[in-house]
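Annotated sample (chain length 299).
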Amino acid sequence: MEAALADFLRHLGVEKNASAHTVKAYREDLTQAVEFFRTRLAGRPFTPESLTTRLLRAHQAWLHEQGYAKSTIARRLAAVRSWCRFLCRQGVLSSNPSAGLRGPRQDRKLPHFVSREDMARLLGTPPADTPLGLRDRAVLETLYSAGLRVSELTGLNVEDVDLAEGLATVRGKGKRERLAMLGAQALDALRAWLEARPTVAGGRGAQRPALFLNKNGTRLSSRSVGRLLARYLQQAGLDPRTSPHTLRHSFATHLLDAGADVRSVQELLGHASLATTQIYTHVSTQRLRESYQQAHPRA
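Output written by the structure step:
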């Protein structure tokens, strides 16, 4: 079974073009599942034929018993279902034991976002008199202006940004490329950072391809972006729960509040499904409802 699992993970990375992060998550989820299956079989050989619907349902029940969040259970069951479908396509299994397996109904949480006023305060917090301060301002402006995932931001190279056209070539989930828009203030921040960038790491910054560098001249990491954001949130006196992904939520919410078309926002976010984008329309509707209830005399 280890060979069958390795083949599936290779298929994800090579044929499905999944990111290293996705492959790692599938490996961890399926390794846990395989350990459960072996324990459940109580010493009997674990072969593809061992994967029965009854065994998979026992695994699902065990996940609930462990107290995992619904989203975690849904993700781990999705990994098992994907593996079973792969084994069927490969002819290893004659029928799919996971066909009737359904994950828990998800609680639809409205995404947290930052108001326009608080966003303006946050973006004005990084200092403009040091190279790293200019970098941090460009990082925050680019995250919010283009609605990027933090991994998309840190993956940018200098050559990916077209300042004249106000565009950035972004590699998103599944290594899909899209064009992201950059607003005037983000472009100003990027120009200032690119001018200071060669001075980073003792003058070695200009030799590196990454757009955003740390003080050692290597590519800025997602964790570093989270840390710098936390620092400026504290300085600005804003909600510490705000994450880099919150800036992406805020980007979508502010666009829809201003009347942008939901399909255009879907393209800008790089969502494969419109349903993923529509959660932001619920945010706007909720705010409208609150305004109505507060303002209308007979609400």
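Annotation: Strands lie at 161-162, 167-171, 177-181.
Annotation: The CA atoms of residues 38 and 209 lie 47 Å apart.
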